[in-house]
Write a structure and sequence with these properties.
The protein is mostly helical and 80 residues long. It has three helices and two strands. The N and C termini lie close together (10 Å).
Length: 80
């Protein structure tokens, strides 16, 4: 963070694919943006929109979005 703007962000999720999933779309989207709830939610939505869950685990897409937003929020709160 610099002057209230995200200058660098690194995100990955484990346990959602056969290997850790690097969240490059969300990283690129957030770089240069303000750390707001709406930006965090948009980044999560953007990242999870291409997820291809099975019928029995579709709920995990929403859980993934929530996990991304929560992690970003907690990281930001530690910075301020």
């Amino acid at each position: 963070m610099k002057s209230g703007t995200i200058t660098k962000v690194g995100l990955a999720m484990g346990g959602v694919a056969h290997k850790p999933w690097k969240l490059t779309k969300a990283e690129e989207f957030l770089t240069g943006k303000k750390p707001t709830a709406s930006n965090f939610e948009e980044a999560a939505e953007m990242e999870m929109k291409d997820a291809k869950p099975f019928e029995a685990n579709k709920y995990k897409v929403e859980m993934g979005k929530n996990a991304i937003v929560r992690a970003l929020t907690q990281a930001y709160e530690r910075e301020v």
